[in-house]
Amino acid sequence: MAKRDENNNIDINAKRDINNFDLYYFIKNKKYYLPKYSFILKSKKRLMSIGEFLNLLKKNSIKNMSINLLREWDNKELLPAYRVERGMIRTESRYYIMEHLDIVKEIVKLKSYGLEIREIEKIIFENKSFEILFLSKIIKNKELFMKMKDIIKNIKHIEDDLVSSICTEVKKYLILMMMILKKLLMINI
Question: What is the pTM of this model?
Answer without folding.
Answer: 0.69
